[in-house]
Amino acid sequence: MKKVVIAGIAGICLCVLMAAQTKPAHTKPVQTKPAVKQTGISKKILADGKKVYDAYCLACHQADGGGVPRLNPPLQGTTMGSGR
Q1: pTM
Q2: Which residue among 32, 44, 72, 79 sits deepest, i.e. has the most Cβ atoms within 10 Å of its Cβ?
Q3: Are 67 and 74 in contact (CB under 8 A)?
Q4: What does the pLDDT look like over 60-69, one tens digit per residue?
């Protein structure tokens, strides 16, 4: 009787170990909505913005937006300069 019980326990343990080592079944990945692709700013809007910057901002904030030290703050890396 002891041999039967031990063999049964060993069989159960073997089944559990085998089940734990099997690879999960391949499932299809969940499809999500594609990210909305931002179209960016049109060339016309960029050209219009450049005209405004050149007319009103260029003298103080410079062509690269770096500003003049101790006189005018830089626009680089700011939300005001990037619009974000």
Answers
A1: 0.47
A2: 72
A3: yes
A4: 988 888 888 8
